Amino acid sequence: MPHPRPGPRNLITDVRGLTVGHATDEAVRSGVTALLCPEGWVGAVDVRGGGPGIRESDVLRPENNFSRAHAITLSGGSVFGLGAADGVTTALSAAGHGIRLAAGSPAIPIVPGAVLHDLGNGGDKAWGLDPPYRALGMAAVAAAGEDFALGAVGAGRGAMAGLHKGGVGSASLDLDDGLVVGALVAVNPVGSVYMPGGETFWAWPFEIDDEFGGQSSRKGAPDPSVRATDPVPDDSKLAALGRFNAGANTTLAVVATTAALTTAEATRLAMMAQDGLARAIRPVHTPFDGDVVFALSSGAVEIGEGPARSLTIAKLGSAAADTLARAIARGVYSAR
To answer: pLDDT grade, residue 79 (50/70/90)?
Structure first.
């Protein structure tokens, strides 16, 4: 069996049917990233941060009766950024995407979303009664395609990873037999993506093809004296930036797969993918973060039944965690 490799783009759009668009406001130093699956894919969500900012997450719970999404929106702007999903919803509806509950009614897209806090980054936030995020959401839909930029763009424009510039990252993994896993992430945690010394990513063991600087091939094993449990430092710089306030930080992620999953199985995929955050950020899921992972299933590949199905889901979850860890490092590497 061949060793799993990234898809041709090494982006979440290697899961066919997905497109991604960014819209960035350089004056505000913020932006929006929209991931589109306008036919409506099975969706799920797992929230583990202590200060999340989310929209329409409950519709993706397995106990509810329409656990599908037509898009996922990630945005800067804290609570103001939740308006980005309004723009994405409007644009998709105008294009005829969504459910219809009555003849002649507008299409109703389901657009869950999550936001990160970037209000203290020095951009012009004096928007008064007209925050830019709804317009940015519509612009992100218009810009969506299979290829997209990584780094300080879209939802990652104003992001910080600890004291370093954060950003948007993505990666994919082809598991063969049509099974593909992809990840998209906006990286804005209080924790560090770097090991002590600020050069080596915590995610270095998972790197493929020098995708974030070739650390796995250049550095070899890290210094054994480095403690893997280093806590958040009592750092005056982080405190001065307000990073020790609940909700001031977060990592927002989407994982997607070609496998045909139920909502409960997609929830398990999101839960397992959270381990990717722990592999790439130390510490994570803190009281200061709003960490959220969405999961999407295209339904393109059937995965059987019984114990073999459960084993496949376990493999998908493991791959999703590794792929998300790689996406986090790629986002910060591209931003810097």
So the answer is: very high
CA distance 234 to 211: 32
pTM over 0.90? The answer is yes
CA–CA gap between residue 239 and residue 54 (Å, rounded) = 25
Structure token digits, residue 115 = 């936001």
- Cβ proximity of 252 and 45 under 8 Å: no
Exposed, middle or buried: residue 142 (CB in 10 Å: 0-12, 13-18, 19+)?
exposed
* Tokens at 284, concatenated: 């994570």
Domains (range + CATH), the chain? 12-335 (3.60.70.12)
Tokens matching residue 142: 């218009």
283-301 residue pLDDT tens: 999 998 999 999 999 999 9
What residue type is 128 in one-letter code?
G
Q: Tell me the residue type at 4.
A: P
